[in-house]
Design a protein that fits this description.
This protein is of the alpha+beta class. The protein is 26% helix and 36% strand. The chain has 2 domains: 37 residues; 133 residues, no CATH class. It is built from 2 helices and 11 strands, in the order H-E-E-E-E-E-E-E-E-E-H-E-E. Pfam families: GDYXXLXY.
């Protein structure tokens, strides 16, 4: 005869293991997303806002960067590029202190500042998504950013040694 308590305890252990595993997966996702903010190096890049608000996403500024578009000649000719493929974009310091596009490759650079992104179309020019195209802010701050960023601004990115990037802040362009 099978002991019913044994059957229920096995079921309870299995359920507990499933719940713990799901919790660990969620914690891992949060840690992976926050890792650039904790360990990254600050890099400032020029940006231009596109749309300050959305009824569905809340108050945010959608940001465009010049390094999101890669010219055809910068990626290997004859290579079959797929949407979703990992691409590395090198950033180099410009004369104004802001980092700008310095080339792209399908292999991770060994040195320098670079971002890891994914192709979003099969170009050319190729578009790359880095996950830093929206800056969320409270309503008052979003409206203030809308006014301040009309002529462009500066995005503060946190970049890890592996090219993972997170958007830390958006500032008005303080030229002049």
């Amino acid at each position: 005869m099978i002991n019913s308590d044994s059957r229920y305890s096995k079921w309870a252990v299995g359920l507990l293991a499933a719940v713990v595993l799901q919790g660990l997966v969620l914690v891992g996702m949060v840690v992976k997303a926050a890792l650039p903010l904790w360990t990254g190096t600050p890099v400032k890049v020029a940006t231009v806002p596109v749309d300050p608000r959305s009824w569905f996403r809340g108050n945010y500024a959608r940001l465009n960067y010049s390094f999101e578009r890669i010219p055809a000649g910068d990626l290997p000719f004859g290579t079959s590029l797929r949407i979703g493929e990992v691409v590395y974009v090198r950033l180099v310091p410009g004369s104004d202190g802001l980092y700008e596009y310095g080339g792209a490759s399908l292999t991770q650079p060994e040195t320098g500042v670079f971002l890891r992104g994914r192709l979003t179309d099969d170009g050319p020019p190729y578009r790359v998504n880095f996950g830093i195209d929206a800056y969320f802010a409270p309503k008052g701050r979003a409206l203030q950013l809308e006014r301040e960023l009309r002529n462009g601004g500066v995005a503060v990115l946190m970049v890890t040694d592996s090219g993972r990037v997170a958007l830390k802040a958006v500032e008005a362009n303080r030229e002049g």
